[in-house]
Amino acid sequence: MAKLNYTDGSEVRRTFCTLCPQHCGMLFRVDGEGEPQAFDGDRNNPVANGKLCIKGTTALEIHRHDDRLNFPLKRVGKRGEGKWERISWQQAMDEIAAKLRDLREQDGPESVATLGGTHKTPGDWASWRWAADFGTPNFVSQGRNCGVSEYIAEISMYGWDTVYQSFYPGKTKCIVIWGSNPAESSPPSFERLRQCQAQGAKLIVVDPRRTKTAARADLHLPVRPRTDGALALGLIHVMIRDGIYDKEFVENWCTGFDEVEKEAAQWTPERTEEITGVPADDIVTAAHMYATLGPARLSFGVAATQLGEGASRSAVLGRSILRAISGNLDRPGGEPLGNPYDENTFSWLPNINFEKLVDHPLRTRESVNAHETPITSISGYKAFREATAKIYPEGHTGTAYVLFASQPAIYRAITEQDPYPVKAVLVQCGEPLLSMGAGKAAYDAFTSEKLELLVTMDMWMTPTAQLSDYVLPAADFMERADLSAHWGIGNFFVVGQQSAEPVGERRNDYDLWAELGRRLSDDPDYWPETVEGMFDRFLAPSGKSYREWADGEVNHRFIKPVFYKYKERGFATPSGKVELVPSLFERFGVEARPVYTGPPYSVPDAPEGEYPLQMIPGSRVRELTASNLRQSERLKRIHPEPICDVHPDTATQYGISDGEWMIIERPEGAIRQRARLDPSLRLDTVNPDGYWWNPDEAQYEPHLSGVWVSNANAITPGAPELSSFAGDQPLRGARCRIRAGEEPVAPPRERVLTGTTTED
User: Fold this and answer.
1) pLDDT value at residue 558
2) Which residues fall within 8 angstroms of residue 364, CB to CB, at 6 or more apart?
3) Are 702 and 725 in contact (CB under 8 A)?
4) Given pLDDT bands bounded at 50, 70 and 90, which one contains residue 464?
5) pLDDT in tens, 76-129
6) Torsion angles phi and psi, residue 688, rounded to 5
């Protein structure tokens, strides 16, 4: 990139925004002191072509915010009391590493767990690399809530995945958006969707709500929450009954079709309507649109992974089967199978090095959830590694999704010591009390006397940070060199320049893991001194260093799609074909047929008579990213309070008026949000804002910045029997009841503060 220098000594630096996972390109004008003064979108960046959403426009406000953490803090009072000693970064690293070393020697590396947050680019992969180096399988990133069951279903069935692939204007003729709302969650994808529609593509949206995306649809299917698997079976039934599936592809490239046909035969459009609430005629229309208008793309959506026991499994299997029998797999404009990085592009998995974790000399146990969900475990990873080896010699790039531990299992390992004790948790740029479900279980774990060390690295004093033993200040995306590879699953990379000098002792996410790693690793060269040095290792196959990419004319590489790969190589499954009934599921004791066990057949999370409605928290809003950005004054003016959508007739039934406070209750407790009447919403469904807290409310115990007042994940269940086959939590579709009310009905629990931790 040719530097644009100004007479006042300022220059333009090029990076990308990480205030959400889209990573839209940004340009910053930086003065002679290294301070950013203005910004614009980068029109040469292919992600958003120069456009920025409302979140990106807050970058300078967030960078300069008075509430940012600037220096490491060590707890000196009781946990949650808010008494701190300011220490240096080096002292913090020395003390934390010493405690981790002691725990590893006394209780094994598995006694340490990591909880990651939203996509801070060096943080996720560096934490995985550290876990593999240290020897613990108990690591989690926010992707655990987004795609574990979907990834496992697709890789088991195809040996490839379609998760991060897009639709193509002019080629894709039918688009199915199922369980997502890109108008709010992914503006670049929504723009691409609009381009497809402008060139004649038809749009089907599956969602209980009439979202902004659904408002553009040619056909909206308002499915009852947690019945997505039944809807998939109804669509499969119509395609088989009417002979509109791809018979040639099924005959030549699929196994298990007879079992799928037998299961789908029960799901007539009429029966499917009874369960899902979607009109039978619309089910028939949708099946014909998807099967006959092609090429067609059934896009990934996170909702299907968050439906819980039975419902999630049948949904992700059913959607995967639809992609296969429609003949759209790896078809231009259809369902592209992700291309792995080639030998001339990027070195992803060798630098994460999960193989070191598998063979680690100090690791003697599986992850804490392996006895509950064995398919997500070290053994599961080995099986997938073996099954996909002929296509992926280094492993499938999404293998982290087979290894992710379960958050509630980590919490139980702390409080119940089951199946073995977890005694330390490292939280990086995430807020488990808000974004990972089962918030009360997380709180019990973080305040337990059995937890000997809780460390949080973040930009803000979050509720979890308020309970921690050490709090470390994180740099924002302007304060660090950056490299976006989207967890390795996007099969592209974008490089970003550092655009601001870090304030105080803010450090980039890599430094936490690298500095702990250098103190604890048996290989002194395993952790380069700087994140730029680590980037050089990733980029080595490209023939250029980080600095050459960052300062070059082009700072990204996107691999051109290759289609119909299976015709030459087959599918990366044990049989070499699409396994509509995956043998890997059978190997781990998971029902491999798309048998529907969602409502009304599933394990109930609460009595239907007492809790007659279903809630679907977690829907994205354009102004916020999960629990992030609550500090922005600009965004607070747009979205100042938590909002719960409810149908007007349902609101009237329970005495609730538009704009007034309403109470949402479950067995776990109750929260308060503002009612917003939405006549398009299903009568049996409410849509609360997710991840809500208020940084302006009182910090520390018992308030914790209002984490219990309106946070939907404070009342989501976390019992293992309610989670999916892959350990995904039932974050959407849980039973609830509502009533009018202004009182904050979920006051923080009063408790006696106890001094618990490290070395009192």
Assistant:
1) 86
2) 108, 110
3) no
4) very high
5) 999 999 999 999 999 999 999 999 999 999 999 999 999 987 656 788 899 999
6) -80, 150
| 416: CB partners within 8 A, 6+ apart | none
CA end-to-end span of the chain, whole Å? Answer: 53
Identify the CA nearest to 88 among candidates 98, 66, 69, 73: 73
Before 679, cis peptide (omega within 30)? no
Q: Domains plus CATH for the chain?
A: 11-64 (2.20.25.90), 73-144+343-558 (3.40.50.740), 166-336 (3.40.228.10), 613-740 (2.40.40.20)
pLDDT of residue 757: 35
Where residue 753 falls among pLDDT bands split at 50, 70, 90? very low
* The one-letter amino acid at 163: V
- Residue for token pair 């997710």: 690
694-699: list long-range contacts, CB under 8 Å, 24+ apart.
694/630, 695/67, 695/460, 695/461, 695/630, 695/631, 699/82, 699/461, 699/466
The mean pLDDT of 528-542, rounded to a whole number, is 96
In angstroms, the Cα distances linking 756 to 192, 418, 428, 654 are 52, 20, 21, 44
The residues pairing with 646 across neighbouring beta strands, listed in sequence order, are 677, 686
Peptide bond preceding 642 in cis form (omega within 30 of 0): no
Sign, Cα dihedral of 443, 445, 451, 456: negative
ω into 225 cis (within 30 of 0): no
Pairing of the two strands 734-740 and 613-615? antiparallel
Residue 2 has pLDDT above 50, yes or no: no
Tokens of 108: 């094994």
pLDDT of residue 30: 93
Among candidates 387, 452, 240, which has minimal Cα distance to 325?
240
**Mean pLDDT computed over every residue of the chain:** 92
**Cα dihedral sign for 543, 547, 548, 553?**
positive
Three-state DSSP at 361 gives: coil
Percent of the chain with pLDDT over 90: 75
Residues 6+ apart with CB under 8 A from 652: none
Q: Which two tokens stand for residue 418?
A: 């089951």
